[in-house]
Design goal:
The structure is a homotrimer.
Chain A lengths: L8 E5 L10 H10 L2 E6 L4 H4 L9 H12 L3 E5 L7 H6 L26 H18 L5 E5 L14 H15 L2 H7 L28 H29 L5 E3 L1 E2 L6 H8 L3 E5 L9 H4 L9 H11 L3 E7 L18 H11 L2 E7 L24 H15 L7 E2 L3 E5 L1 H8 L5 H17 L4 E7 L2 E2 L8 E4 L7 H12 L3 E4 L22 H4 L1 E8 L8 E4 L2 E4 L3 E7 L5 E7 L7 E8 L2 E6 L5 H11 L13 E7 L5 E7 L5 E11 L5 E8 L4 E6 L3
Helix pairs in contact in A: 5-8, 6-8, 8-9, 12-13, 15-18
């Protein structure tokens, strides 16, 4: 069974409906030759199941699934709800999503439906029930994907049914208008609601500005609507599916609490990995960070936080792009293999390539698969063969857990509030980037840990250090969790703008960092954004002058045991506290008044004693990850993302799984090269 | 009484509805400690007055006003019409403003209403009448603010009622379609109207282009609608208010004839002064000029033109910004005091800080007041205390008039026409900037004087020099006023693109500068915009080569007494006249063929003999203004906008009001420092 | 008769409706003094013909035409359908065009109507029939212009009637939904249509993305709608007009098969030539190329392809620009004459200036004519007089044919598909630019030749070399035409991305370049866009390293006679084939794997032996064209686009038509200078 910890499997996304039936068998057999044992199908094929309203047909998929079974292929079968038929959206336009102005978004793309209209949900229910009941028994089917990339094309929903559902969501949550008005601060600018009918999702307003607390609730509502939409399908599938079949979907996309979704409805999450965005023609827009395809490791860590057991449903295998945008070059020779190992290095035991053969029509004519239009073998399919052979050599890694040295904390509340708030949102991205790069370059694997009132997505105690860059929204429950972590011996690092908002995004009348002040032992005395006319800001920490960019909290120690470690340098508050430290129980808390640049994060890593788990000499260009089996066996992955050879030094004898040889001392990694080394237990 | 010339008063904007009643008394008493004697309240509180349609309540404000009176506070009470309740806009959507496409702009921001719908005007009438009748007698209330920042959030109005009102406005103005068609040049592109029903405000068109003469009328209509909307409220207030109560509103915003508004309906205008925009994160967009916060003096001069007696209703006191935009750093230590004195230096005898305490919810969570969320004293409240003490030392200045050496002429017609016209609009901004900077750096205080067919906003004769950079739209009446000014001994300076349009924005079949040609004695022989491939353009004036940028009129002297002072250099019309001079009566006229760069304006200042009113040695970084009492006492303000000390030399004995000491000879101004010097009568 | 090959004529655009009748006679007589014998009138004057619905009037134009005849003026009379009256669009809003969202585009601009609504077409039919029947007999009228600049203001049509007409167009073209679905690849993303009612032109979609094959059909439909709209009028005119009257329209604009339009409905096409866009304030946006006004020669070559016999209906004669955009400086002294000769040099025997006198109102107040508002003679009218005198000296050129050495092939299908496709559209512009500049600088005149299944717009055999930069869409018929050309001795040069799409924009399952592979003898083995992280790419051709930018096809010779001429250098496919060569029949084919930079095109010119038709020494700054009479007389035009003198050397004795002198050896062309030299037959 997929992701059972016994085998790393390869798959591909296949669209039999795009090809002449005469190609099917050949395709499936050639897949097998390339090591592909799993295919995902049917996610955009509603019309094949239900060509007219209420008329169902199974000829197509029955025929295909039988052939798949015959060819020994395992199938992940999808619900086709991401692309409602034209007959449906034309007859029932209320199923369409709408933009902020209420303009419907029409047929011609995908995900143009909303997730709340009773009409759409009924159609979804009916088609999923039909599919679940008819196909579950098919032996080829090993699991189910619900819908496709929910919230990928948009996270903006404004259909009439969305407004109504939002109203119901708020009514359920707040009970009375009085509660709602208080929580949403509607007394400001006379926005008080006196009837539920006055309440809407964001609409067209002057300056595109809306009540920020309502905007936060709007995001919570969108996440909830998406979870319910997937949940509706998951519950139907669970009624009919065979026990050994899994349920998943593919992500990760915005304004969606993927942790809650996965916990409530999925067996595991899968990720769609397209590292080549880093090299696309509009890269500047899409990938602000500068580690290029290595940035995908950031997203894989996010996925691992959601679903420690996860697969890659779509792994890039060729040049990417729609006809109108996202134009990407061909992967360089070696990158397909490198990216496959990147996924595995981060914990994926299933890697399914997108797609088998490039579609010859439609919007994704340039989202190339393994094969080109001409169906001839090519250098990418040759590379896949080599990759497959290599993966067979590392099957011992299957099921091994990712080993992290540090945790970066995050929470949906602060993130979603920050989407609408220039005073903390942009800081978070910068600090995440600073920590990611610094940890990568120091070869320190890390995990993301999600925090909510219900607890953390992974046990915090297993980490020595936890960095929570800007926990803007803070609650009693979360402050207590952080306190427990520290008291039990953990080291917590906080950045500026912490704890100054409550769960609704309001600012309590407390000295900042609010509920975290009892933990840090200090409060914010003065603060400022750094404007365009300001000098660059630093803090003097010991003998070093370390960047303290973007925003500066001037800290004031309030308890005797809170000590000042560093002071500002550069602006009018020169010499005032920038960083404090306090021991609490067995642990310690650092409160930092600014944003973490990469250099800043590196300084913390150094001073906190965070070290790479291996004492090897690795260049900055090479990523290190480690996966550990329950039995203690450990596997180090080294990934060279550059087109240059890289020198490494491994001062111990370790076995290379790919070559079978023992590696010791200095060595050279080839361009885009990969090493998987079995290292002794620690 | 406020602005009675007897006392400079401090105030603040206070929102009792945002805070627990338990805080009110403490707030009011602490204000008093900080020198604050006046508060403005209620401008966004419609629901407190009328929680449901037709149901009025006065409990809230009665209670608060009684407490205010008890604490010795003087109150400016507002009409709450800037933010209609949700119950109103939901039930009567016709009261909403609409965008160009007709999409309503909805609840969630402020000023989302239109100013023409009979339904809205009736609701406004009713609530204002209730307020005026109920509260006028309250002893705490010293005056009234109508609405809030009219035309701030938008100057674009397209509700169905706006279209209808525009039609009525045109019918009243033009009487017949024939008149309208002729004035609007509708024969061009076959735009002739054959029925009033065919007439609309601008709507969605190809290339977002509309008849430019109709666009000019649209702006006149919008100004008129705003004046009528404020006038409706003013007339109700006048029926009920006590005689000693004043009526004002706060500005200045676009597409509004503030001169007419103030003359017809207000006792005086107040200005909202936010110098910190100059240091904001999106400063590049918001403040193209480079004198940063000193640019606010430009706006204060504009306000003074509208209302020689004026106050500051909102004076920035902390970091600024909404949650989504306009992010501004904290004012540097000293800037709060500096900006307060900047307002007073320009004539304001009332300065009211925005706001007492930063709101803890809503869109303006980051538009910080004097106090932060935590309500603790901070460095800004400490600075206010010092500022208050300083103001008490300069009370002798109260009521003194601003003294200007020169007038810059402007008119709404050319300005509004230029908003839609790339061939003169952008020139105006550049020339205004050039003159402002050159005059500032030469320490020559100036006034703006507004010109209309009815006359000028201040007597032109009191100025020796008047600069009218680009009076594109010219009428017989205005040409006559300019002629009188010159004949009586004034010096008039004109730039390019003068006088080539009539009152409807059409171009008369006359040699340019049209109606001004009899005054200048020259006409435009050739002309060109300077394109991207052209050389930089200069004029040779005596021995100097002076910028003549953007647009060049090649002038031709037509009368014997018109002499050529300078010729072009740089392009194909090298050697042709760029500047002419003519004596007319007791005065003289300069016609300049280009735009005024700062260096160009400086050359004119030098050659026209414009001099600073004091013979002091002042650095460019320091602004000088002078206020003079009716009894001849004069007070010079020196303002240092930089974070560096500035050296000055005052070669006469003058008394410093702030220190009480006598200043003479060289001295140093501290960073962000302020001096107020009593100087001998001139 | 105009364009009868006997005389080069001058004209102007005149708008008697804009001026007082008292000016008419003077205007017409002054035109005659300036050599103007032809005027175009009436294209925006529907209301003058039909002031109310169904009420016609001819007083205005009868009076004017009689006066024109009396003054000896020949008139091109227009149908006024580009600007429907306000009474029409207000009463029948279904005649308006709409934007993508369905918002109507309203009165206030021009071309705001759609071309499909039965109501509008009936109004058009009626007014054109009235005009044709009433005015055809008038002796002043020599020809007809239909509408004005069709598809100039927009090529986006989304009115309800457009959606319906598109549906009808597809039904007619595809017959069945099954055919349509297959051709449009609707199985992708489940876009299958199951009823004709589900079909629409593009509408609002997520990411503004629609089915690309439908988008191609949408462009074909828009072209067809425009042709039918003009055709409707042409057919009415043909019923009534005198035989000697011609029918034309003015262009060229986008998404319109001008070749088909001209062939089916017009006697010839006219072009609107505004070279001054090259010097406008927003030039960066409008003219990406760097030859400035010389780029207009590119458009004149396009016009010549559409209509070898053509005129200039609007030739720029002054500064240009609307009130809101396209601001252009005054033409430099000499440019009006230069641009007139540019048009003639490229084959135009009729040049009509836009416009006689600058309009004093409306959107085009700044689209200056020969005269300014003041109606005084000026330097431009003086220049026109000299130009007229010069043209009289070159009347021997009238009727001579343009002589080209090379053909650049193009087709509407690839161009329209490329508008929606980032993977080949942008390449075409770059390569066209590269070839245009390289040919210009080598002084090699060229023609554009349009290719379609029906054949080529000019006989290909008359060219030695044909360059078809990126024929993405390829059909059997076109491949056969290219093969014939080569077999008969032609040299064909192809760039990357050739032949990989079929007529619907789908990618056939063939090795690229698909249907062209049998001709090139090679196929594409690998390919990539060059991303931002890639090195600049070159090919090594002999001893030279030549740019091979943007996109790289790695070629693989499949036939023994296909030889590799050059290999790549710069990226991972270093050393692999970039350019192949093959002899086919009497000719040869070059397949090049990349885009043609200017330097690349220059290398091809050099190696292909393309040479200037004259062996003169000409600087890069000077353009050369040659026109040849049927009797063998040849005239060379030399045009200096710079403001600097240019040295030339003509090593043979030739007669200068403008001076009457014989030129031989070295000489100097004045800034913006023009030479017309009679050269010996070749």
């Amino acid at each position: 069974m997929l992701l059972d910890g016994k085998k790393i499997e390869l798959g591909t996304c296949y669209y039999p409906e795009h090809w002449d039936r005469s190609l099917w068998r050949d395709d499936l057999l050639r897949m097998q030759e390339h090591g592909i044992r799993v295919i995902r199908v049917a996610e955009f094929s509603w019309n094949l199941f239900e060509p007219q309203e209420g008329v169902f047909s199974d000829d197509f998929w029955d025929e295909f699934l039988d052939l798949a079974a015959e060819c020994g292929m395992q199938v992940i079968f999808c619900t086709p709800t991401a692309t409602p038929p034209a007959w449906l959206t034309e007859k029932y336009p209320e199923v369409l999503n709408c933009d902020l102005y209420g303009h419907p978004v029409y047929h011609g793309m995908r995900k143009h439906h909303n997730m709340t209209s009773p009409v759409y949900l009924e159609f979804v229910r009916r088609v999923v029930e039909h599919i679940a009941s008819h196909y579950s028994a098919h032996p080829a089917i090993i699991g189910w994907q619900i819908d496709n990339e929910v919230n990928c094309e948009t996270t903006s929903y404004h259909a009439p049914s969305d407004h109504a559902a939002f109203r119901a969501y708020l009514k359920e949550k707040f009970g009375t208008l009085e509660n709602l008005n208080r929580a949403m601060g509607t007394v400001f600018w006379n926005q008080t609601y006196t009837s539920w009918e006055e309440i809407h999702l964001s609409r067209n307003t002057l300056a595109k500005s809306s009540n920020p607390h309502m905007m936060l609730e709007e995001r919570r509502f969108i996440s909830e609507a998406a979870i319910r939409y997937i949940g509706l399908q998951a519950e139907i599938l669970r009624q009919y599916k065979r026990p050994e079949q899994f349920i998943t979907t593919n992500g990760l996309f915005g304004v969606l609490d993927n942790h809650k979704l996965t916990a409530e409805y999925l067996d595991f999450m899968t990720y769609d990995s397209y590292p080549n965005f880093a090299f696309g023609l509009d890269t500047a827009k899409l990938a602000p960070r500068s580690l290029r395809d290595r940035e995908t490791s950031f997203n894989l860590a996010k996925t691992r936080s959601v679903s420690p057991r996860f697969g890659i449903m779509e792994q890039q295998s060729g040049p990417g792009g729609w006809n109108t945008r996202m134009v990407q070059p061909a992967p360089k020779p070696g990158q397909l293999r490198l990216w496959t190992f990147q996924s595995i290095a981060h914990g994926a035991d299933f890697v399914s390539y997108f797609r088998w053969r490039t579609c010859t029509f439609g919007t994704e004519t340039y989202w190339h698969g393994l094969l080109n239009y001409d169906n001839r073998p090519n250098r990418r399919t040759e590379e896949l063969k080599r990759t497959y052979a290599d993966i067979e050599k590392i099957q011992a890694v299957a099921g091994a857990k990712f080993c992290a040295q540090a945790a970066i904390l995050c929470d949906y509340d602060s993130e979603w509030d920050g989407m609408e708030d220039k005073w903390h949102g942009p800081l978070r991205g910068q600090s995440m980037d600073g920590w990611f790069k610094a940890l990568q370059r120091a070869h320190i694997p890390f995990d993301f840990v999600n925090l909510s009132d219900a607890g953390t997505s992974a046990p915090l105690e297993s980490y020595q250090v936890a960095v929570y860059p800007h926990p803007t929204i803070m609650t009693e429950a979360r402050a207590a969790q952080l306190k427990s972590f520290v008291e039990a011996g953990g080291t917590l690092v906080l950045g500026c703008r912490s704890g100054y908002k409550d769960i609704y995004g309001r600012c309590p009348m407390m000295p900042m960092p609010g509920l975290l002040a009892p933990l840090t032992g200090c409060t914010v005395e003065d603060f400022t954004f750094l404007g365009p006319a300001d000098e660059a800001e630093y803090m003097v920490w010991g003998n070093d002058c370390i960047p303290a960019p973007m925003f500066n909290d001037v800290l004031h120690p309030d308890t005797p045991d809170c000590t000042v470690l560093a002071v500002y340098k550069g602006n009018y508050y020169d010499g005032m506290p920038a960083l404090t430290h306090r021991r609490v129980g067995q642990g310690e808390v650092y409160a930092f008044g600014a944003v973490f640049a990469e250099e800043t994060a590196a300084a913390f890593i150094d001073r906190l004693g965070l070290r790479s788990p291996v004492d090897w000499t690795l260049p900055e260009a090479v990523e290190l990850t480690i996966r550990r089996q329950a039995d203690g066996a450990q596997y180090a992955f080294l990934l060279n993302y550059t087109d240059q050879p890289q020198e490494i030094r491994v001062p111990q004898s370790v076995r290379s799984l790919l070559t079978g040889e023992t590696v010791c001392g200095a060595g050279t990694m080839e361009p885009y090269g990969v090493l998987v080394l079995e290292i002794p237990e620690t």
